[in-house]
## 1
Amino acid sequence: MDDVNESKQIVLQIGGALKKYRKEKNMSLDDLAELTGVSKLTLGNIERGETNPTLAIIWKISKGISLPLLALFKSEDPVSLYRAGEGLRFSNDQKNWIIEPVFKSNDTEMCRAYLQPNSSYSPEGHHVNTTEIATVMTGSIEIQVNGEIYTLNQYDTISFRADSPHAYTNHTNSETVLHLSLKYGF
């Protein structure tokens, strides 16, 4: 499947999962907009597969409905293979932070994350009681959690409450690759 068709499939999958959730909860688009902080128009476009939502929008929806991010990308296959650089990828508006979903269970999800050289990424706070575990696979990175800075090099790992303020900074001239795990507390 080419990248355009794969992207369209992903957009339709997100929209279908969101619409299914909304219908199961007997919610209107207005209700969902109020819950997530995402406009009714944007939510309707997502449900119909007419827009490719940004990572920030997907996080707002996920947080607002208290579902893990990857719950919006369900796969029914008994075996899932995720090759680096292929398949589902999301980036922030600046395109300096890219994530690739790797695995999801009921309360845990894993992603590969790529932070471009000489850049920073500050995510919105995640779901309440979520733990984030980050391991540097290549490169080095500074991670700021609650105002304190931690420097991690290749294979170093840090664990912290992801609902607290945190940021990733790559001060090097090379891309940093991370393995991220999110363990949800709901």
## 2
Amino acid sequence: MNLTKRWCTYLLVIALLIAVTVEIPIIAAGKTTKPVPADVLIILGAKLAGREPGAMLRLRLDEALRLYRQGYAPQIIVSGAQGRDEEESEANAMRDYLVAHGVPAAAIHLEAASFNTYQNLANSRAIMAEQGFRRAIIVSSASHIHRALSLARLLHIDATAAPAPMADSLYLTVTQYLREGAAMLLLAASRQ
């Protein structure tokens, strides 16, 4: 084996070890995290399809509806701004979806200024303080739970989480887990 091939092999092994080390906690959090009753659900935004929740966001909303109906929390914060390619804010679309599925509008608090997970949680924390909510359940996709809880701890939010199922697409699922792995590496690097 020549020197170039040997170095390529070493680099590939290192890359695989890093990927496995980063991805295992992300996958485990999405499979094992369980919510604990709280004051409020925080639903993290995701892509809209026109004015309607996209597939991932619909799965998050359906999980939040299940928790709300089972009495896990009496209030909901919907969090997400309007992206450049979206017709309205994710928060507005989420509110409309929840109201259409029986949640009273008075139980829903809009946070429509955030463009990323850190902002979602920081702005939701401000609503929690304003409303006197002490504990939250973060509702997001299973692939996103590990990072969302890491950021909640960083922001001193007392929270558990409820992982929503992943979309029924292998490509989308793999893409989301890889994206979360990269995001966790960036988060770890920024805390150094």
